[in-house]
Every structure is written in C-alpha cells, then in structure tokens.
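yo

u said u wanted the structure for the complex thing, so here. seqs first:
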Amino acid sequence: MKSSYLPIIGIEVHVELRTKSKMFCSCHNRHFGQKPNTNVCPVCLGLPGALPVPNIKAIEETIIIALTLNCKINSVFWFDRKNYFYPDLPKGYQISQHFAPIGINGFLPVFGEGKSGKIGISDVHLEEDTGKSLHTEETTLLDYNRSGVPLVEIVSKPEIHSSSEAKEYLKRVQQTIRWLGFSDCDMEKGSMRLEANISVAETNQAGNYQLPEYRVEIKNLNSFRFVEKAIDYEISRQIKILESGLLPKQETRGFNSQKGVTYPQRGKEVAKDYRYFPEPDIPPFKFSSKQISKFGENISEMPWQAEDNLMKLGVKGQWVKIIARRKETVRLFLESQRLSSNKISSQELAGWMVNKKTKQDTKPKDLVEEILTEKNKFSLSEDRIAIFAEQAISENPKAVADYRQGKTQVVGFLIGQVQRKSQGKADPNIVTKILLRKLKQNK
Amino acid sequence: MDLWRLSINQIKKLIKSGQVSPEEVYKVFLSRIKKFNPGLNAFITVIEKPEIDKTKKDAPLFGIPFSMKDVYMTKGIKTTAGSAILKNYISQYDAAVYRRLKQAGAVLIGKTNCDAWGHGVSTENSDLMTTKNPWNTDFVAGGSSGGSGACLAKDMAVFDIGEDTGGSIRLPASFCSVVGLKATYGLISRYGAIAYASSLDTVGPMARTVEDCALVLEAIAGKDRLDATSSSLPIPKYSQQLNKSIKGTKIGIPKEYFVKGLDQEVAQKVKQVINRFEKMGARIIKISLPMTKYAIAVYYLIAPSETSSNLSRFDGIRYGKGRGKFGDEAKRRILLGTFALSAGYYDAYYLKATKIRTLIKRDFEKAFKTVDVIVAPVSPTPPFKIGEKADDPLQMYLADVFTVPISLAGVPSLSLPCGFSQKGLPIGFQIIGPHFQEAKILNFGHQYQKESGTFREYEN
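structre next:
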C-alpha cells in the first residue's frame, strides 16, 4: 500500500412528512396499509390537465427542519421538474427542488463512536414521493397511494469517513426530525429512507486528499445496521480494486442484507440527465428574513441537549430518551416541574408521563393537579396505617382466627376495614404489607 | 328571424320570457352542426342530448349552447387534444372552466378539433382531421383552436372556449372572422386543460361579438384554488364597461409589426382600423417593441421545452398508446425541447430564452407607460391553403410571429375581424392591453364593432 486510504461518504436521507394532506393535492396523506389506489385524485395520478397546488404546511415544516439543521434559508426558492421515466412516476417528472432548494449549507453536530464534530449538510429540499411498483412473477402492479406524499430530502456533504460516523449522523437526523414531530422516521414503514454515496480517496503524507473521480451509490438501505454493513463492505471492496491499480466503476449498487454484500444493480449505467427546469405550474416563494426568523423561534434547543438537561434534573434511564423524543414533551415536563414547586420529584414526574402515556398537548397545570390528586389520595403515612391495621385486627378476632386456620382470603376483608378507617387515603399495597406482617407477628 | 344569429343577451331574453325553451335553442344549433360540420370538420365530439340544468334558470348563461376546444376535461366525455394517443380517452373529471360554465347555466354542445396538443397554426397537425375554413374550404381555419373558429363562423354554437399558448385563439379567430380573447396569463384557471406549455397556456373565450366575449369572460375569470398560478385580483363586470368613449385615449402602433413580409392586404386593412380609431378620437402614437425579433426563437425554445416535459406522461403505460403514436410535429417539439433542457445546453438555450422573455415583457411594460392599448395585425398573411405549408415547419412557425411576443409577455390581446382579402378570406387585427386590463381592450373592441360591424357572412 503506497498511501493510506480515506473513505469519502455522503448520505441522502428521505423523510416523509406526516402533514394532513399530500404535497400538491388535497388527498389524505396516508398510504401505509391502505387498499391500493384508494387514496388518489387527478393531481397525484398525473391525469392530463391536473395541476399541483403546494402544501404550505409542508413548506413551513421543511423550513423548520432546515433551520434546525443550521441551514441558510434561500430568500427566494421554488420547485423544479426532475424529468425521468419510471412506471410509478405518473407525470414522467417529479416535482422537486434543484436550483434553489429551501435550505442550503447547514451542519449537524455528531458525537459518539465516530469522530466527534460537524457533518456538513449541502441542502434540504422538498419534493413529492412516487407511487409504488409491486413486482409479481407475471406482472408489475402500480399503487399510487404514496404518489404525492411530501418528502424532505436531506443531503449531507461528503464529509463522513466511516460507517460508525455514518450511523451516528443518521441517528442524529432521525432524532432531530422526530423531536420536531414532523415524521415518525420509521424505516420499516418507509417514512425514512437512506442512500449512501461511497468512494475511497488516497491521502498523501500530510493527510490531504482529492475527491475521487468515481462514486458508488447504494440504494434502499432500510436500517442503520445495513448502512453500517454496506459501507464497510463497500469500503473494503473499493480498496481492493484501488490496490490492484484500477478505479472502481461509477455505478449504483444494491445491498443484499442476508449475504452482507453489495451488488451491481441491473440496467446499463447511463449518465443521468434529469433536464431540470423551474416548475411553471407553481410560482416561486419569497419569505422575508423576519418571517424566517419567526420559524426559528421554537428551536432553541436540540434533543441531545434536552437529554443532558433531563439527566441533570434527576431523570434516569430510558425515561430520558422517551421524554426527549419530542420537544413538546420536554416543554410539558419542564413547565410541570416548575409548577409543582418540588411537590413532585423529577423522577416521579417522568415516570408518570411515561407510564400514563401523557399526551403532549396536556396542560402542565392539569398534569400537576392530576399527579398531586393521585398522591394525596394515599397521603396516609405508614405509622397511621399501622394504627388502623392494629385496630382492625383487634376488632375482628373471628377473621383473625379464620386466617390462622388457613383462610387467607379474609385478608381482603381486613384490608377493607383499614380502608374504611383511613377514608381511602391509604395505599392498598402498604395496607396489605402491614396487615400481613402484623397477622404473622400476633401469632 | 334566425335564432342562431342572436347574441347571448338576445337569446337569454327569449328564454326568460318563455318565447323559446333551452331545448329549442339547443336544437337550432345542433341542426347547424348537422348541416355544416360534415364539410368543415370543426367538431371531434357532438353531444346529441343536452344536459340542461333547470336549477340554473337565473344563472347568467342559462340555456346558451357552447363548444370547447377538445383539450378541456369533461367528465364522462371524450377529450382527445386532437391526438391519436388520446383518441378514445374519456375524461375522469371536469376542467375548472367547464365547471364554471355549467355553474353559469351554459350547455355544452360539442368539442372542437385542434392541432394535436396545441402544436400548430392550421389544425393540419391534428392526428384526427383537418378543419376547413368556412369562407373557402380549400383554406385552413387557423390553429391550433381551428375547430373553434370554424364552429363560430358558421354559428354552430353561441360561443366557444379556446386555448391560446402562442396564438392559438387569435389566429383562428382572425382566419375565420370571429372574436377571440387571449387573456392575461393567470386570469382564468388552467385546471383541467391538457397542458401544452404551462408557462404560456391561457384559457379564453371565442365568440361572434366582443360583447358576448365579455359576458363569457365574466363567468370564467378569477381565482381558482386548483391553479396555483391563477390570480386573486377581483373580476370586474366586463360587459358593463364596453360603452366607455375612447376619445382622448392613446393607441400605440409598434413599428416592428409593420415590416417587410407583412401581406399588403393585411397591412391595408389594419391601417384602415387605425384610421377608424383616429376618427373615433383616439391618438395614434408610433412605438417600438425592439425585442420583437427574438420572440419566435425564444418561443420555440420555451414552449417545446415545457411540452417535452408535459407530454412525457403519455408513455404507453396508462393511456394505451405508445410514444410512437405521437405525430411528426409533437415528436419534433419533444426532441427540440429535450435538447434545449439537456445538461450542457440548458444555459445556452432554455435559460437564455427565459432571460430574453423577461426583456420582451419589459418592452410591453414600457410601452404601456405611454399608451393605453397597442393595435397590430394578428397574422402576417390571410389564411393559407391547406397543404401549402405542411412540408415547411419553419414557415408554419412564422404564422405566429405577431402573436407569440404577447404570449411571452403574458399580456392580454383581443383578436377581431376587420375585413376580407380580394379572394374573400378574413383578415383580423389585435388590440393588446396591459396585464389584467381585459376591460380596456374589450371596451376598444366593442367600440370598433359598433362603428365597423362584426364582418359576419350575413352582415350587409
């Protein structure tokens, strides 16, 4: 080996937004598990004469995603047509963004196993999803339910240099978008999809390198683990070729998850020419810097910062991750905690929210009241319960005798007696514990 | 009295007073179609049984039979765009303009022939048939909305909805001696109109008089939430602004439209129009639109580029017929546009064309700072013979030389008749206005027709 090798990796992440309606029509934005071709209209079927009308909510959400990923928002942005043929692309072009995407030039901090630092993001743009092709042995079936679903594409710069770094980056992206609540980023359902562009550069002694002349694109990676595996496989495959003095072929490859190998995808490789041009059916968008900074107001904190904060406040274990999944939940937690003025511990509050699956739109005041009511319900101290238990035992000698003869079910009767005395303010678990102890003692 | 000669308001009056039923009106026009269409090929589809919505008795166009260029979606009825690919295609939904007209009580009587996908100036590019000029059947009716022009020339409907991308309403109006309005881009919803070139396509009324045109425009103009490019400006009552005096107004005459290559007879007729306007009290001002000479080149880059993309959905998977079924002209424009958008050529062709388009628009904006309207010929020549230019696409393209600059600028233009050549073929002129000033050009047009008439067969 005459020099050392540096993997150069760029990642494209597609995320489906879960807005109410599709990107360019008023069809309901759901496709997973629906009967084929039931959620379609002239627009998303690409029928002659139909026109796209942009979903403003999807545009706003993409602006917020881009801002969260530290992007600059183009003051004027528009949609472009990406022309290509595919059976599940009903218009023969996809409405996407090419010349002026919503967000450009951002970054995401990455820590963990991979190298810590920033991964650059070249652009964040909005487009429409395609339909789905279902290949059976005899034929190919087309389902257009997914056609027109809003899809945000986040394109990283080629600044990732290992599979673990790639995984860290992807985890961060997923966490960030879930945090904002715009998508569930579920790779099994296809609401988050990944493509990796991989090449290997030769570095000189000073560690400098030039971007390689080729690039291998790996499509349809549907788990973080597969991304790691595919990248590792690809890096060693490419190094082998480079060491033999050749240049790996520029191509698109698939990943066989069972064998853990990448393989060339069928069809000849022709230079892609999408003949992009501005979408004439949709006028450009202009946002003032004032409007844009308003979109940024709600994103002062990132999910990993929220996690740190929660841990400092005494929340432990899995509950941190669950509370910090959505920024609304974190806000609810923090405000409730403030309102409870130490009557509820952080751990108690977190446990309550997780176990009772508290809805994120719950009012903090209501949540605090709910917890305090429940707490006050069993406000009786163990000492007081012990006194009531003693009384119940001495007042019911028959029951005690029955118990000693093995009729253990009479404990229920004694618990009821204690509860009556305590007016329901005793925790039934504690009552049982004390009663059993006393019954055994008094033997 | 012949009912078919009557205007919208006259027919409305007869229906309202109960002197005639909408069914009877329909029958009169249907019998005109039966009589004249076989010799002219104006219609692709004729609707034998009218759908008259009696709940629309008080609607503005109740019982008025109309036709539409066969590019508008009409649920359950065929829409072919004059193409072999969609020869048997049944519309799955209603175009916005059709919905509005039904809402206004108008009754669809048929759908008219056009050059396939709107690509042409003579209907000779229709994959289905060639429409003949009612004034002399050896000649073309103009295009692409040629069926619409022929239909109105022979009074086979009261009005028609054409579609104009580079001249497709104005040219057939001029060749058939009827009125056609190319509206401001964005005034009328394009939803449900099969797209030719999306940044240029405009829906517009064609009629026998300017007044009828204004009445139809009132019913179809205005914001539509299904067309993102449609304007939210309020829509005036165009028909109530027709009678303003044009005394003291300024009419611009662009020198670039009166050049070598303009037929002498056309030049003479348009000069008579200018003289007439002058007598009516308008001031005639010579102006210049210097970018005019680039318009054809720019148009034939932008329009084919967009059409190459718009037509890619007809890929043989869902519409039954493969791409080999495209006619020669469609193939020519698909190739031209695909080339102009290709990597390495985009900047030199498509992008440059869009920049010049902006300059052309500025020409007009500048001119309208000094004049109210612009008057110009529509076509450099009277109608030509069927087959005369069929083998020369470039000659064909030049028929649009005076109409495409207006399309590129997006401003409105009203094409109306102003006489006949010595051979008896119609000659028209256009009144061009600033963006969204349809009321103004309709006012000028109506005033002209009050003085000079409508140049119909039965007039005089």
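The interface with chain B takes residues 42, 46-54, 81, 83, 85, 87, 90-93, 142, 273, 275-277, 280-283 of chain A (CB under 8 Å). The CA atoms of residues 13 and 379 of chain A lie 52 Å apart.
cya
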